[in-house]
Amino acid sequence: MSNIAYFPAMPPREDNRPGKRERTKTANRQAILDAARQVFGELGYDGATVRDIIRLTGLASGTFYNYYKSKEEVFDALADDGARRFRPLLRVEFEKATDFASFLRGAMRAYFEFLAAEHETWRVNRPAGETHPQVRATPEVTAVFGEVREAFERVLEREHAPPVDLDYLTAACIAVAREVGDKMLERRPMDTQGATAFAVGLILGGLPALPRP
């Protein structure tokens, strides 16, 4: 008799990999987002249609509508995806920061560089001055707010700074970043360094600290 018979049977390994159906759904969503990013960049948000996005994915129209009902939903999903991928960059800047000013500068620079990279197709194909639609408060965008607020709280504690309304501070800094970023996207060339210098100067020093044109 084989010695193998004396060893207890090993329990089957647990397979934590997603099933084929789940992998297909993930791949379809990613194909739609990749196509939408390219279509919005080439045609502009207003000029793009759901049909343009579907055509680029190679998926059936019914498949598209299993995931998204409109181009507005796709745009929100792109914003959510971008915020999710930006959050690790934000954490890196927090780990490098020595005080509030260094975190603010690093976070702003990382945001504007990320924004410019995300809109490379837009930069190449869309005319200067064309506005970009506002991003709504998707779950991942809301999570970014929470991470920025927590980072502000911790760096200010390190400095023993006087108490400040963290909700207002976070909202104000994000609003500046968003509005300056939108204007940066309209310009040619997109100047990430100029956007960073302006936003950081405005927040830290007000009008007297702003770079002069």
Overall morphology: globular
The CATH class designation of the largest domain is Mainly Alpha
- The name of the CATH architecture of the largest domain is Orthogonal Bundle
What pattern of helices and strands is seen along the backbone?
Answer: HHHHHHHHH
* Total count of helical runs of at least 4 residues: 9
Number of domains: 2
Mean pLDDT over the residues: 89
Largest sheet descriptor: none
The CATH topology of the largest domain: Tetracycline Repressor, domain 2
Percentage of residues in strands: under 5%
Question: What is the terminal-to-terminal distance?
Answer: 89 Å
Topology at a glance:
Layout: H1 20-43, H2 50-57, H3 61-67, H4 71-96, H5 100-118, H6 120-125, H7 139-158, H8 166-186, H9 192-205
Region (Disordered): 1-26
Protein name: TetR/AcrR family transcriptional regulator
Biased composition (Basic and acidic residues): 12-25
Describe the model.
With 213 residues, the protein is an all-alpha fold. It has 2 domains: 20-69, Homeodomain-like (Arc Repressor Mutant, subunit A), CATH 1.10.10; 75-209, Tetracycline Repressor, domain 2 (Orthogonal Bundle). The chain contains 9 helices and no strands. Helix 5 runs parallel beside helix 8 (166-186). The longest helix has 26 residues, at 71-96. It is globular. The model is unreliable at 1-9 (pLDDT under 50). Residues 1-26 are annotated as: Disordered. InterPro entries: Homeodomain-like_sf, HTH-type_TetR-like_transc_reg, HTH_TetR.
